[in-house]
From TrEMBL:
Record Gene3D superfamilies: Nucleotide-binding domain of ferredoxin-NADP reductase (FNR) module
GO cellular component: cytosol
Domain Oxidoreductase FAD/NAD(P)-binding residues, every copy: 24-127
Record InterPro entries: Flavoprot_Pyr_Nucl_cyt_Rdtase, FNR_nucleotide-bd, OxRdtase_FAD/NAD-bd
Keyword terms: Cytoplasm, FAD, Flavoprotein, FMN, NADP, Oxidoreductase
Protein name: NADPH-dependent diflavin oxidoreductase 1 (Trinotate prediction)
Organism lineage: Eukaryota, Metazoa, Cnidaria, Myxozoa, Myxosporea
Listed GO MF terms: flavin adenine dinucleotide binding; FMN binding; oxidoreductase activity
PANTHER family in alphabetical order: NADPH-DEPENDENT DIFLAVIN OXIDOREDUCTASE 1, NITRIC OXIDE SYNTHASE-RELATED
Pfam families, A to Z: NAD_binding_1 (PF00175)
Length: 165
């Protein structure tokens, strides 16, 4: 008989009090933590609105929890943006959707939103970080140096958290 060794690791993400808006960004299986969090808050109309950015290769092949995400999006509390990188000739990634919605992201950050990133640890985390830093710089009218400090402060305050693998 074959044996499989596995290890279950606890999530490192710390979610804020439920009255604080979140910006959740995930690729692939990284969406599982956000799926669980949103399931836990659904049905409470006093929750703030959250932004969810999801990236998958193909909408029909690997859009994890597709039906649930579609149901979540029907609530007034969830604004969802998807990127399917292999469904068209020109690849579209979550950082592209983030950049397209820069004004909205800045509005949420200005209101104290916490930002979460989960998924692939290759280029995506750096690309997303740079996209958000550019939004902070543009909409906050900050210099590069001050925008970099702003992002660093978000991390120190746990308002920018990553769980990548």
């Amino acid at each position: 008989s074959d044996q499989i060794y596995a290890k279950i690791l606890k999530s490192t993400l710390i979610f804020p009090h439920r009255d604080i808006p979140c910006i959740m960004i995930a690729t692939g299986t990284g969406c599982a933590s956000f799926h669980a969090y949103i399931q836990s808050i659904m049905g409470n109309s006093s929750n703030p609105s959250h932004l969810v950015f999801l990236g998958f290769r193909n909408k029909e092949k690997d859009f994890l929890f597709k039906k649930d995400w579609e149901d979540f999006e029907k609530s007034k509390n969830i604004k969802m943006f998807t990127a399917f990188s292999r469904d068209q000739h020109q690849k579209i990634y979550v950082q592209d959707r983030i950049t397209e919605n820069g004004s909205l992201i800045w509005e949420y950050i200005s209101k104290g939103a916490w930002i979460y990133l989960s998924g692939n640890a290759k280029r995506m985390p750096d690309d997303v970080y740079e996209s958000i830093k550019n939004i902070v710089k543009l909409f906050g009218k900050l210099t590069e140096k001050i925008a970099t400090k702003f992002m660093s402060d978000l991390e120190k305050l746990n308002r920018y958290q990553t769980e990548t693998y």
